[in-house]
Design a protein that fits this description.
A hairpin with a 2-residue loop joins strand 1 and strand 2. The chain is an alpha/beta fold. The longest helix is centred in the C-terminal third of the chain and has 40 residues. Helices cover 44% and strands 20% of the residues. The two termini are 49 Å apart. Helix 4 crosses helix 5 and helix 19 packs antiparallel against helix 20.
Length: 596
């Protein structure tokens, strides 16, 4: 289906890969791996026709339909569901004569809900959503359009772990040729059956998922490598946990540590382009109980997310927070950090506790006018320059890199620098909210390993199952407005989600009635009525969303005693309600007409 013959691809004067020979077929699921900057995205652009080979031949079967995640949105005013629907050939060609045409809208809605959008958001314009959610919409487009070849570049970024689990299941069923760029090893292990390595300007195809590929490479290189003493210490640390908890309530998590031990032993035998030597520093003060909340109601003005929450965090706690996107995980973290989202209840913190907090906005807030050395010299005035240079070097910032402007750094470099800065402040507890979005696989593994040796507490929200299974000792689940322990591992959480989704689907299932076959003369009229019905349903959803917004505005104006705005909003509310009643009546008429 896809072939490369003696192909060279360069970026300016830099050769990305050379003498590449490759043959890929329908049904293969390929994980494309390599260091940042090695040429993975450039290979995707070659497939899409945006790049051209410098030497050699590139071939793709005729009439191959390619789907990929676009990085831009041209029309941000379009409604979310329409944005996804409009890429399907049956919609583009208006095949209203086909029964499948009428299944596309509910299919698009279901896909978007599985990707984390709520029912109320399905008919909002794209400009209502943040950049991360717009990327989810683009992912939905790529999954919705029929394709023979699907290209996904870091598809798990901006997803929560629940959505990643769903995406894994979806991709396992994909029947075309799938190619994925990802630094999420668990995701690659669960989805791919081949690994395409881009290293030292060479493309090499291996049979098997990422772990099998890694093991194969390690076997090829083992005679040239020595396992570092640091890694032996980490393995011993993990083994201690396994020995202690191999039976009982944490047996599943102990088993995850066994897998982690194997991966450390393999991964550290493979040469790296950048060497990291991360060490989580000892907290300045040692205390046992760090922070606790009890009978806590958590949320924002006008919206409560969690009720009656109780959680104690101790010095060596390793806590993973589970729950669907928007359920309150980040909000709970903010309650612990500064109490800003605590509506009622008790928050207690030891006065000696120092908190470290990493989130996406932390990376965005880093000073772009600084260099790594100038930033750290200002933030850590008690450290000598040579000491700071050595510390920055352990995070991959060596030589002249410490003087480069941060504004020219990649997202991964900024994330690395941010984590380094947090750790150098020597916190007692570190909150990590999706820390791996920009980190390459090597840095993710180093982070997971280093946390094991940290003599402080860690609370993690992440879609990276490798990080969670490697680090977390106890999971807490936010579900139905409550925070409760989840006594199981991530595989059991997967099963929990499947059972819950099945129960919801069964509860919401509408009994099917065998349709009567219309006479040929009436066929066209029925199709037109179904189209009208779909249009009315869109309007109903938009009006319901508008009414909900107006209700919130009315409550706000009433609280502020703003009578003028309250009257204006009330008039709009009454008009919207009247319009909704009118459209619902039309919907019922058409529904009955089709039923006849």
């Amino acid at each position: 289906m896809l072939s490369l013959k003696n192909l060279r691809l360069a970026y300016g004067s830099k050769i990305l890969f050379d003498e590449a020979n490759l043959q890929l077929y329908i049904g293969q699921k390929i994980g494309l791996v390599g260091q940042n900057g090695s040429g993975k995205t450039s290979l995707f652009k070659l497939i899409l026709g945006q790049n051209h080979p410098d030497i050699g031949d590139f071939g793709l079967s005729q009439d191959t339909h390619i789907a990929y995640v676009e990085q831009e949105i041209e029309d941000s005013d379009i409604l979310l569901t329409e944005y996804v629907l409009n890429v399907h050939p049956l919609i583009i060609e208006a095949h209203i004569d086909l029964p499948e045409y009428y299944q596309l809208r509910p299919s698009a809605e279901k896909l978007l809900i599985n990707l984390g959008f709520s029912q109320e958001e399905l008919y909002l314009p794209l400009n209502h959503f943040s950049g991360g959610w717009q990327m989810r919409a683009n992912l939905a487009k790529a999954l919705f359009v029929p394709s023979d070849l699907l290209l996904l570049d870091e598809p798990t970024n901006h997803l929560d772990v629940e959505t990643v689990i769903w995406l894994e299941d979806w991709l396992k069923k994909y029947s075309g040729l799938l190619m994925i760029i990802s630094h999420d090893r668990e995701f690659l292990d669960n989805v791919t059956n081949h690994t395409l390595s881009l290293s030292n300007k060479r493309l090499t195809l291996y049979t098997g998922n990422y772990s099998i590929f890694e093991r194969t490479r390690a076997e090829q290189l083992i005679q040239h490598q020595q396992v570092q003493a640091k890694n032996l210490a980490r393995v011993a640390h993990l083994q201690k946990f396994v020995d202690k908890f191999s039976a009982g309530t944490r047996a599943k998590q102990a088993q995850s540590r066994v897998k982690m031990i194997e991966k450390i032993q393999i991964a550290k035998n493979i040469p790296k382009d950048i060497e990291y030597d991360i060490e989580f520093l000892e907290p300045e003060y040692q205390v046992d109980k760090l922070i606790s909340i009890s009978d806590a109601t958590i949320g924002y003005p006008g919206k409560t997310l969690i009720n009656h929450a109780k959680l104690d965090i101790f010095q060596n706690s390793r806590i993973g927070l589970l729950g669907r996107n928007g359920i309150g995980k980040s909000t709970l973290i903010k309650t612990f950090i500064d109490g800003s989202t605590l509506q009622s209840g008790i928050r207690e913190i030891n006065p000696k506790v120092k908190i470290g907090y990493f989130a996406q906005h932390t990376v965005d807030g880093i000073s772009l006018t600084d260099s790594p050395l100038s930033l750290f010299s200002r933030e850590h005035k008690n450290k000598r320059e040579q000491e700071l240079r050595g510390y920055l070097g352990s995070y991959g910032f060596v030589g002249d890199k410490v003087h480069e402007s941060i504004k020219n750094f990649s997202g991964g470099e900024k994330a690395r620098l941010t984590i380094a800065n947090i750790i150098l402040h020597r916190p007692n507890i570190i909150f990590l909210d999706e820390p791996t979005n920009h980190l390459d696989m090597q840095m993710r593994e180093e982070l997971a390993s280093s946390i094991q040796d940290f003599n402080g507490a860690v609370v993690i929200v992440s879609h990276d199952k490798f990080l969670l299974s490697s680090v977390v000792d106890e999971f807490y689940l936010i579900d139905g407005g409550h925070l409760k322990p989840f006594n199981g591992d991530l595989e059991e959480y997967h099963q929990f989600l499947l059972k819950k989704d099945t129960a919801i689907a069964t509860k919401n299932k509408v009994p099917t009635i065998a349709p009567t076959t219309p006479k040929p003369a009436a066929q066209k009229n029925v199709l037109r009525l179904k189209s009208d019905l779909a249009n009315l349903e869109e309007k109903i959803l938009r009006l319901e969303t508008q009414i909900k917004t107006l209700e919130e505005q009315m409550a706000e104006h009433a609280t502020n005693s703003d009578n003028a705005k309250l009257k204006e909003t009330t008039d709009k509310y009454n008009q919207a309600k009247a319009k909704l009643d009118e459209i619902e009546s039309k919907w019922l008429e058409i529904h009955h007409a089709i039923g006849e």
